[in-house]
From TrEMBL:
Lineage start: Bacteria, Bacillati, Actinomycetota, Actinomycetes, Kitasatosporales
Domain of life: Bacteria
Protein's recorded name: FAD-dependent monooxygenase
Region named Disordered: 407-441, 548-569
PANTHER family: BINDING MONOOXYGENASE, PUTATIVE (JCVI)-RELATED (PTHR43004:SF19), TRK SYSTEM POTASSIUM UPTAKE PROTEIN (PTHR43004)
Molecular function via GO: monooxygenase activity
Cofactor names: FAD
Domain FAD-binding positions: 14-347
Source organism of this protein record: Streptomyces amakusaensis
Annotated signal sequence range: none
InterPro entries per UniProt: FAD-bd (IPR002938), FAD/NAD-bd_sf (IPR036188), RIFMO-like (IPR050641)
Keywords, comma-separated and alphabetical: FAD, Flavoprotein, Monooxygenase, Oxidoreductase
Pfam families for this protein: FAD_binding_3 (PF01494)
Length: 569
């Protein structure tokens, strides 16, 4: 039995998100926070998975989850990681200390079972008015003006859902990706790991993620707290019908771990195939891919789910702005270019970490160990390793190659980089005064203009600042951050205006000049529709100017403007 096409009760066609894992839940919650109707469909029965898959949440993900008020509950529920340590032949190579991060409210990683992560985000989804519908996608027609999705319910009924937009967050075997005909491209051989969860008695730290390398293979420990650990063991192959036994993990621990330990009964074990795949595109018209549906990585560094959460937020604020009519539709073109490049970078770094951990030749091992120890002594390991692990190094700078976006290649903040500024949909509307908060707040829904005086906060600066504020619609928050000295290494000595996206990435850096800033808004595709504006004496007026008209009035593209989209006009 097939039902007729269903629409949202208010007559609008909602966004349809397929997949209620962490990525789909975050995306749906983000859209609901913007007031955008969402339907969330998942084909996996609740509680059907016995295996906790992704277990580490890194600082950048916590920052973004703060937008939907999910970061604090997660931090309370998870076990904190202070450091990631590397060993070779049971001897220490070096550590990356997450606790030394200074530009985040979350200077730590979290180890937490994926089902608990999903539970926290699902609670926020329900509080925002959302719910998860059970059903599997069996058909997708993307040839019409709007996608038409066929969903089969658990009782065998089918429903056709017409939506303005469809997002496939339905995992590695994504039905949305397959039905869209999008190729899942890969390179390199798969690597097998035996993984399992259980207790270990011994002298292992409860707040340290360990990677242990030997000629025989690699071993990893992630602490859940209370003596419980996730174990991951590289295996050359697995042809057995049964799951890996506890004895395999114990033998490998005795051979590779830097400290002795006794593994107790394991809750579950399985074989994990570490693949490297990136979809040829993350967008096909009105259909998008996010999370594992769009990319798969090696398990090294626990970057998969975290990368998917960044997909969800990147797409969420852009899609919401287009649906609400506050952003130009062209902004959606940047999702594929930004997030596919980010995914390819993670493929590169995790593949390198995996291959370095599986070296077998003595000469290659000696070179690796020497390099890592030298990086530890000089501080390079901490300076580059901590942002890389935390995903603070993710940038949307325009680049001709992946090499140009590797951490440490450029200095100072540039267009596309993350700034330590944060937002919440339910947070304060105004930024605190210097000294009242560690970081300024930005708007969760629209671009924010941050003004930086540089070396001199004199009368000339005050006049420049006030003139710029007067030139923009009230729909743009304009905030002077000159009182926060922590931005000096990032923004330099000269005055500038920083156009910041709702996700905290820099859209453009310009001189504090109204014409240049309006040009930057246009080039970054952050133009909002004409909206009611309140004049300086409190009277609400409707103006044709708005941001769209203001930007349209800009006569040319200034050579002084730096944006993340060099070719946009």
């Amino acid at each position: 039995m097939t039902n007729s096409v269903r629409k949202h009760p208010d007559g609008s066609r909602p966004v349809l998100v397929v997949g209620a894992g962490p990525v789909g839940l975050v995306l749906a919650s983000e859209l609901l926070s913007h007031g955008v109707p969402v339907r969330l469909v998942d084909g996996t029965p609740p509680g059907s998975s016995l295996h906790s898959r992704a277990i580490v949440v890194w600082p950048r993900s916590l920052e973004l989850l703060g937008r939907i008020d999910a970061a604090e509950p997660l931090a309370e529920a998870g076990n904190r990681l202070d450091a990631v340590s590397y060993y070779s032949r049971k001897r220490p190579l070096g550590s990356v200390e997450m606790s030394r991060l200074t530009d985040t409210p979350y200077p730590f990683g979290l180890v937490i079972p994926q089902d608990r992560t999903e539970g926290v985000i699902r609670e926020r989804l329900v509080e925002l008015g959302g719910r998860v519908e059970q059903g599997s996608v069996t058909g997708l027609d993307n040839t019409g003006p709007r996608p038409l999705v066929t969903v089969e319910r658990p009782d065998g009924r089918t429903e056709e859902i017409e939506a303005d937009w469809v997002v496939g967050a339905d995992g590695a075997h994504s039905a949305v990706r397959t039905l869209s005909g999008i190729e899942f491209l890969g390179s390199g051989e798969d690597v097998l790991f035996a993984i399992g969860d259980g207790p270990i008695e011994g002298n292992l730290h409860d707040n340290e993620l360990l990677y242990c390398y030997t000629r025989g293979g690699a071993l990893g420990f992630a602490p859940f707290g209370g003596g419980q650990f996730r174990l991951a063991v590289s295996v050359p192959g697995w042809t057995e019908d049964h799951a890996p036994p506890r004895e395999l993990f114990q033998r490998v621990m005795d051979e590779r771990a830097p400290r002795p330990g006794q593994i107790g009964p394991l809750k579950w074990t399985t074989i994990f195939r570490a693949r490297r795949r990136v979809a040829e595109t993350l967008r096909d018209g009105r259909v998008f891919l996010a999370g594992d549906a769009g990319h798969l990585f090696s398990a090294a560094g626990a970057q998969g789910m975290n990368t998917g959460i960044q997909d969800a937020v990147n797409l969420g604020w852009k899609l919401a702005g287009v649906i609400r009519g506050t952003l130009e539709p062209g902004i959606l073109d940047t999702y594929d270019t930004e997030r596919r490049l980010a995914a390819e970078r993670v493929v590169l770094t995790t593949a390198k970490q995996t291959s370095w951990g599986l070296l077998r030749r003595r000469r290659e091992i000696a070179v690796r160990d020497t390099l890592v120890r030298a990086a530890r002594r000089t501080g390079v390991l901490q300076r580059f390793g901590a942002p890389l692990m935390a995903q603070h190094d993710v940038t949307y700078r325009p680049a001709e190659s992946l090499r140009q976006t590797l951490p440490g290649v450029t200095r100072g903040a540039g267009a596309g980089d993350r700034l330590p500024v944060f937002s919440r949909h339910t947070g304060p509307k105004e930024t605190p005064e210097p000294g009242q908060g560690r970081w300024p707040t930005i708007d969760a829904r629209s671009p924010t203009v941050l003004l930086w005086a540089g070396q001199r906060q004199d009368g000339t600066w005050v006049r420049q600042r006030d003139a710029l504020r007067e030139s923009l619609p009230d729909t743009f928050p304009v905030r002077d951050i000159s009182g926060w000295p922590g931005f000096a290494p990032l923004l330099g000595k000269e005055p500038k205006a920083v156009l910041v996206r709702p996700d905290g990435h820099i859209a453009a850096l310009t001189e504090p000049d109204p014409a240049e800033l309006r040009t930057a808004l246009r080039r970054a595709r952050l133009v909002v529709a004409a909206l009611p504006r309140t004049d300086r004496v409190g009277r609400e007026t409707v103006t044709e100017m708005g941001a769209s008209a203001a930007v349209s009035a800009a006569p040319h593209v200034s050579p002084h403007v730096s944006t993340t989209d060099e070719g946009a006009s």
